[in-house]
C-alpha cells in the first residue's frame, strides 16, 4: 500500500515515516500544502495522512481541493488541533477520520488499517484466500496454518493482489503500491518479488496474464 504523509514537523515526520515503512507501507513524505496538492494531482495513493497546520497551503484547503476533484482517497487527519470545532471542520471538509497529536502509534496504525479495509470494501482485518492468510496487524503469513516468512516487498505485492482477487494488476500498478518516489526501482523488481512469493507459497497462487500483469484468481 502506498501512503502520502503530509507533515511539516521534521521530528514527527521522521518518526512516522519510520513507523509506516516498518509496517511495510511505501510512503511519500511532503512538508507543505502546495507540495501535497501537487502530489495528489499527479500520483495515486491508498491513503493520505494529513496535518492541518501546514506552510504555503493549509491542510483543510488541500482536503477540500482533493474532494472537489471527486477523489475518494481515504484521508486521516493527524493534527494538534483538538477543539471540537476543528474536528467538525476536518470531517466536514471530507476527512474520513481524525486523530489528535500526540497520538499513540499503535492507534494510528489501527486507524490506517481500518480505513484501508473500508476503502477496499472489506470488513475482516485478515486476508484469506485458498489456504493463504495475511494478517496486516501482526504481519503473520500462513499457508494452511503453517507460518511463512515474507520480505517486506513480497508481503506488499501479495497484499495488493489478495486485496482484489480476480483483478489483474499491471507491473506499473504494483510498482505504485510498492515504491515511494525516492526508491531506486529496477526494471524487473516486481518480477523478482512475484518469484519470491511463488517460491514460498506455490506457483498457482499468483498467475501471470501475458501482456497485462498479474492476478490472484478468485
Number of strands: 11
Cα(first) to Cα(last) distance is 21 Å
Low-confidence stretches: none
Q: What's the overall average pLDDT, rounded?
A: 90
What fraction, in percent, of the residue positions are helical?
A: 40-55%
Strands of the largest sheet, in order across it? Answer: 2-1-3-4-5
| CATH-level-4 superfamily name of the largest domain | Response regulator
Features:
218 residues, alpha/beta, Rossmann fold, Arc Repressor Mutant, subunit A, five-stranded parallel β-sheet, four-stranded antiparallel β-sheet, 8 helices, 11 strands, globular, transcription regulation, phosphoprotein
Can you give a write-up of this model?
The chain is α/β, with parallel strands linked by helices. It has two domains: 2-119, Response regulator (Rossmann fold), CATH 3.40.50; 127-215, Winged helix-like DNA-binding domain superfamily/Winged helix DNA-binding domain (Arc Repressor Mutant, subunit A, Orthogonal Bundle). The chain is built from eight helices and eleven strands. It has helices spanning 10-22, 33-42, 59-68, 84-92, 105-119, 152-162, 171-178, 189-201, and strands spanning 2-6, 26-30, 47-50, 75-79, 97-100, 127-129, 132-135, 140-143, 146-148, 207-209, 213-215. The strands form three sheets. The chain has a five-stranded parallel beta sheet with strand order 2-1-3-4-5, with helices on both faces. A four-stranded antiparallel beta sheet has the order 6-7-8-9, with helices on one face. β3, α3 (59-68) and β4 (75-79) form a beta-alpha-beta unit. α2 runs parallel beside α3 and α6 (152-162) packs across α8 (189-201). The chain is globular and about 50 Å long.
Amino acid at each position: 500500500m502506498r501512503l502520502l504523509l503530509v507533515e511539516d514537523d521534521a521530528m514527527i515526520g521522521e518518526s512516522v515515516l519510520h513507523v509506516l515503512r516498518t509496517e511495510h507501507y511505501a510512503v511519500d513524505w511532503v512538508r507543505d500544502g502546495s507540495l501535497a496538492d501537487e502530489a495528489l494531482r499527479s500520483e495515486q495513493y491508498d491513503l493520505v495522512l494529513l496535518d492541518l497546520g501546514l506552510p504555503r497551503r493549509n491542510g483543510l484547503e488541500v482536503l477540500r481541493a482533493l474532494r472537489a476533484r471527486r477523489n475518494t482517497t481515504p484521508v486521516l487527519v493527524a493534527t494538534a488541533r483538538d477543539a471540537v470545532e476543528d474536528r467538525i471542520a476536518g470531517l466536514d471538509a471530507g476527512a474520513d477520520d481524525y486523530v489528535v497529536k500526540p497520538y499513540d502509534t499503535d492507534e494510528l496504525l489501527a486507524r490506517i488499517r481500518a480505513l484501508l479495509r473500508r476503502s477496499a470494501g472489506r470488513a475482516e482485518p485478515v486476508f484469506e484466500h485458498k489456504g493463504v492468510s495475511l494478517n496486516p496487524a501482526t504481519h503473520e503469513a500462513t499457508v494452511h496454518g503453517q507460518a511463512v516468512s515474507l520480505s517486506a516487498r513480497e508481503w506488499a505485492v501479495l497484499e495488493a493482489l489478495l486485496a482484489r482477487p480476480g483483478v489483474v494488476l499491471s507491473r506499473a500498478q504494483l510498482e505504485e503500491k510498492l515504491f515511494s518516489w525516492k526508491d531506486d526501482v529496477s526494471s524487473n523488481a516486481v518480477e523478482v518479488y512475484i518469484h519470491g512469493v511463488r517460491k514460498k507459497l506455490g506457483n498457482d497462487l499468483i498467475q501471470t496474464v501475458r501482456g497485462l500483469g498479474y492476478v490472484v484468481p478468485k
